[in-house]
């Protein structure tokens, strides 16, 4: 089983920012190779090496071929200045140039590549070493993957019958200490298996990813709070402890606050005692001081959080968020919204997706 840590960017470039215009033309299939060889000499695509020169579009009875002639220097409705060598090819082969759009940069994921090819075919070369993408060392990557495995175990072990639940794990990465853990509605303790890695990993996690990403899982996942933030309160059981706002990330935050009150009781008795207000944890503290909310902590989630939970994590000053499964219904960190890129907020965290294949 291969695990991958992928950064979720804070914004997706608009079409005008991510594409450029090129001059293209339909060509006869028997002339395509000849024209392409000549173009590679007189008009190489130096800054668009990921763009395939020829596009093949299936039509009734045969395929229609189009070829990129050269970059366009005019606007979308003008052909602009065409280099003399390219103009000669257009005249020699009686081509009819038109303006087309291609993506400016090479795809960084298979999903992005598939989206690019809808506009014009591009090449995709996946990076073998995920650390080149994320910037994590091998040791850090293994730690992150270990924490995500624990989070997924937590979600799996706390299924309510056949219903799934979201799970949250708050960790201090500076000293690699578990701060709090929770599932929807319930704080849990898991020190007993926090470092366990028993069982067949490929079978356990492979099945989990397969179930959570299949179309048949919709009913089983109807009880995942962040996936169904509007209908979830309507599922209130006959239990006075149940609360519609107790999504797993919120419960984990409450558990972290309760831990602080237990470890630092004098602060509640004497509010004048100061503590580091916005200290980002880069080193293990020498003196035990009460942290400011969840400053510098990481949180691991089975599911991408909804807007309410994502904002709660902003207010808590969380440093990084890792999640395993996207949330197509109400995801606030990439699937529907990208709260991490909202400039008006006074705190911003980094977001990563951890997945297995």
Automatic annotation (TrEMBL):
<dbReference type="GO" id="GO:0002100">
    <property type="term" value="P:tRNA wobble adenosine to inosine editing"/>
</dbReference>
<dbReference type="InterPro" id="IPR016193">
    <property type="entry name" value="Cytidine_deaminase-like"/>
</dbReference>
<protein>
    <recommendedName>
        <fullName>CMP/dCMP-type deaminase domain-containing protein</fullName>
    </recommendedName>
</protein>
<dbReference type="GO" id="GO:0005634">
    <property type="term" value="C:nucleus"/>
</dbReference>
<feature type="domain" description="CMP/dCMP-type deaminase">
    <location>
        <begin position="142"/>
        <end position="336"/>
    </location>
</feature>
<keyword id="KW-0819">tRNA processing</keyword>
<dbReference type="GO" id="GO:0052717">
    <property type="term" value="F:tRNA-specific adenosine-34 deaminase activity"/>
</dbReference>
<comment type="similarity">
    <text>Belongs to the cytidine and deoxycytidylate deaminase family. ADAT3 subfamily.</text>
</comment>
<dbReference type="GO" id="GO:0005737">
    <property type="term" value="C:cytoplasm"/>
</dbReference>
<dbReference type="GO" id="GO:0046872">
    <property type="term" value="F:metal ion binding"/>
</dbReference>
<dbReference type="InterPro" id="IPR002125">
    <property type="entry name" value="CMP_dCMP_dom"/>
</dbReference>
């Amino acid at each position: 089983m291969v695990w991958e840590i992928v950064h979720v960017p804070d914004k997706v470039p608009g079409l005008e920012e991510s594409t450029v215009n090129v001059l293209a033309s339909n060509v006869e299939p028997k002339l395509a190779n000849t024209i392409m060889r000549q173009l590679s000499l007189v008009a190489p695509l130096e800054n668009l090496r990921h763009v395939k020169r020829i596009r093949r579009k299936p039509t009734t009875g045969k395929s229609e071929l189009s070829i990129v002639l050269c970059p366009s220097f005019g606007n979308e409705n003008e052909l602009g200045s065409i280099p003399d060598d390219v103009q000669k090819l257009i005249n020699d082969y009686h081509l009819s140039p038109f303006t087309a759009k291609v993506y400016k940069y090479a795809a960084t994921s298979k999903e992005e590549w598939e989206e690019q090819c809808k506009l014009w075919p591009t090449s995709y070369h996946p990076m073998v070493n995920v650390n080149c993408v994320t910037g994590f060392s091998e040791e850090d990557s293994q730690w992150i993957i270990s924490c995500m495995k624990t989070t997924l175990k937590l979600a799996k072990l706390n299924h309510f019958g056949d219903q799934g639940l979201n799970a949250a794990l708050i960790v201090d990465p500076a000293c690699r200490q578990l701060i709090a853990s929770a599932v929807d509605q319930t704080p849990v303790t898991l020190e007993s298996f926090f470092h366990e890695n028993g069982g067949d990993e490929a079978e356990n996690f492979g099945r989990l990813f397969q179930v959570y990403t299949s179309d048949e899982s919709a009913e089983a996942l109807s009880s995942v709070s962040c996936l169904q933030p509007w209908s979830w309160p309507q599922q209130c059981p006959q239990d006075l402890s149940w609360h519609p706002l107790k999504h797993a990330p919120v419960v984990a935050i409450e558990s972290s606050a309760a831990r602080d009150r237990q470890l630092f009781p004098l602060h509640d008795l004497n509010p004048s005692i100061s503590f580091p207000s916005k200290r980002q944890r880069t080193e293990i503290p020498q003196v035990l001081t009460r942290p400011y909310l969840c400053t510098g902590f990481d949180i691991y989630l089975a599911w991408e959080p909804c807007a309410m939970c994502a904002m709660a994590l902003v207010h808590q000053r969380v440093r990084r968020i890792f999640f395993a499964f996207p949330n197509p219904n109400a995801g606030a960190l990439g699937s529907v919204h990208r709260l991490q890129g909202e400039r008006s907020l006074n705190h911003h965290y980094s977001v990563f997706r951890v997945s297995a294949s």
